[in-house]
Amino acid sequence: MFKKLGFRAIVGLSSLVLLLAACANETNETKPEVSPDLEKATETVNAKTPNVIKQHADLNEKPIPLEMERDGSDVYVKMTAQISDIEIDEGNVYKAWTFNGQAPGPLVVVNEGDTIHFTLENHDPAIPHSMDFHAVHTAPSKNFTDVAPNEEGTFSYQASNPGVFMYHCGTDPVLSHIANGMHGVIIVKPADGYPTDQEVDKEYVVIQNEWYKYNDLDDMTNGVPSHVVFSTKALHQGQPNTNGTVGAVIHSPLEAKEGDKVRIYVNNVGPNEVSSFHVIGTMFDDVYIDGNPANHYKGMQTIMLPASGGAVVEFTLKEAGDYKFVTHQFNHATKGAAGLIKVTK
Ligand SMILES: [Cu+2]
């Protein structure tokens, strides 16, 4: 997908990196391709923040709320690309590349059949960003294109399929943009609802994501995540809205009453790992894979969420107590991917 000249530059750059690496430690490890723009913008500002982009070094942009307005079935959504500090673990502040200062970004909820008129304001002074909604059919070359620093772009498309979809920045190198924090969830509510709508007492949104060494494309490509985490986004007023940080959904637990049927809209935004989503002490009575009412499964213990995959899961909490949910890939649960549902009488 690289333009011809860009590709040559990258090949040249990669060869140089390879040569230097070979000289330095006599290994032949393949280095990921870094776009020349990103390579130029990135430098070690100090030992504490390796790989920080020079213009990001002193930048910590205050989160700007999502703007959303509806006119019939036309929905006007405005988001920002911005650089904001997020403490992903105690004492570990990540200068995240974000949508609206959150990682994952703000929850977007629309109805099946809506036309989305999406505006991205790029508040990042250094590099371009973009938006790829998995909820729409459109030509990426036309509607998922880059918005330059300090510019804005508007794109329109229809959300014609119901589901729990990922969105992410699609600017090259995509892995850097997603792993640095530019991901989120858009729910497209089915026109005719889910067959179990009447049974559900509480509903929440849960998202899984990974973090790697700061803006380190080599680690993102060849390494393992340092943190795998859950976040929750407020679907209804008064619900917690967190970033993807270690313990976020334990410190801000989900709540239910004994006997409640709970629905979770869940998505794994990755970027790289699969999620094996499981609630300890119950099982999923009803599951809609990717959140489409047509994909209805019953009685599942664990659901597999591929990177970007979503689901609606519904389960009954028959006894009061604390229920943890995890990815059953326990190496990832150990790195932070655990959340809590507090069930009271
Ligand atoms: Cu981006």
Strand content: 35-45%
Give me the oligomer status. Answer: single chain
Strand order of the largest sheet: 11-10-13-18-15-16
> What distance lies between the first and last C-alpha atoms, to the nearest angstrom?
56 Å
Pfam family, one: Cu-oxidase_2
Organism: Lentibacillus populi
GO molecular function: copper ion binding; oxidoreductase activity
InterPro entries: Cu-oxidase-like_N, Cu-oxidase_C, Cu-oxidase_fam, Cupredoxin
Concise summary:
With 345 residues, the chain is of the alpha+beta class. Helix content is 15%, strand content 39%.
Q: Can you tell me about this structure?
A:
With 345 residues, the chain is α+β, with helices and mostly antiparallel strands. It has 3 domains: 43 residues, no CATH class; 123 residues, Immunoglobulin-like (Sandwich), CATH 2.60.40.420; 148 residues, Immunoglobulin-like. The protein has 7 helices and 20 strands. A 6-stranded mixed beta sheet has the order 11-10-13-18-15-16. Strands 1, 2, 3, 5 and 7 form a 5-stranded mixed beta sheet that branches. A 5-stranded mixed beta sheet has the order 12-20-19-14-17. The longest helix is centred in the first third of the chain and has 22 residues. The radius of gyration is 21 Å and the shape is globular. The N terminus is likely disordered. Bound molecules: copper (II) ion (CU). The site of copper (II) ion has 7 residues, from loops.
